[in-house]
What we know:
Elements: H1 6-14, H2 37-50, E1 58-62, H3 70-73, E2 77-80, H4 86-96, E3 101-107, H5 108-114, H6 116-125, E4 129-135, H7 170-174, E5 182-187, H8 191-203, E6 207-213, H9 221-225, E7 233-237, E8 253-256, H10 262-270, E9 275-282, H11 289-299, H12 302-314
Parallel strand pairs: 1-2, 1-3, 3-4, 4-6, 5-6, 7-8, 7-9
Antiparallel strand pairs: 5-9
Helix pairs in contact: 2-8, 5-6
The chain binds thiamine diphosphate and iron/sulfur cluster.
Iron/sulfur cluster binds next to loops.
Amino acid sequence: MTVLSMEEFLEKECGDHNYELEDYEAEVPRWCKGCGDHGVLTSVQKLLRDRKINPEDVICVSGIGCSSRFPHYLKTYGFHGIHGRALTLSEGVALARPDLHLLTVMGDGDCFSIGGNHWIHALRYNFNATVIVLDNEIYGLTKKQASPTTRQGVVTNTTPKGAYLKSLNPLTLMLGVTNISFLAQTATWLPGHLDNTLNKAWDHKGLSFVRILQRCPAYLSSSFEATGPDFPAVFLEGEGGIAVDKGMLQKASVIQHDHHNLLEAQKVALTETPSPMGLIYYDPNVPTYGDIRRRRIKTLDRPGLIAGLNAELDKYTVKQQHG
Ligand SMILES: Cc1ncc(C[n+]2csc(CCOP(=O)(O)OP(=O)(O)O)c2C)c(N)n1
Ligand code: SF4
């Protein structure tokens, strides 16, 4: 543990403290070599360093999966939750500690499968959080089981004859949920674009949802190979959007996109190949659940509320018998 002098402590707490990447490094990541999760961790650490964010002002909440080991590796507050429940835990954190920046990390199985119900309602509640899903199209931790985004025909341990169903398109689904306020897509093999996307998401007040296409060389080397220069992508460019950084994908195209237009966003999201990269939908005016709750609490008649509660409880108190 580093012991700070009083001057260092005051500078850290009150001043413009410079941080190094190491200030956000916890355990050494146990992810496989070449796993896309490494790059996302570095991108988050760079964001925190560049913005001079005190590690104690951030909490990282996750579910279960390879990707959900994130809080062990990021030196901020952390909560490694249970499978599929990262968003329910996050909502509690958002309401109880609105002063912390909340980062929620999930895998595709964690969010779109077991956590599917919570995923939909979290979007509608629009609580304040940066939510990232590391979508490797497979259950990595449980060694190659099919997930909702596994492509049709892909052989997995749970679909030995190939996945029967067409994969779920999480983007179109999310754009059908009331109150969606921020939706973006990027990929682990586009580090510049990943950085730009996380920075944009971090600034959004409300639930910013980022789907990150992620390499899993251990169990889905086919998707790993597809991340070469020929990966079919189309970058979305628009005023106030995410700066285009095509990385190695020189052949990818760039289109103009109005991310405030829901119908246009739905059209863009429908096209899975080439994959749309960038800010797909953005509405900064959707109120957050926290703000709605706080406004209601302010307008409540507190003495009246307490009197009403007492009257209700009195109905159940056992009256003492006298005489
Ligand atoms: C209630 C419950 N059901 C199932 C499991 C087993 N399990 C652990 S992680 C996981 C899926 C992980 O896949 P994903 O969320 O895509 O993350 P990845 O490992 O690929 O990052 C499953 C099914 C569990 N831990 N708890
Ligand atoms: S199994 Fe896949 S997702 Fe899990 S750490 Fe290894 S490469 Fe990453």
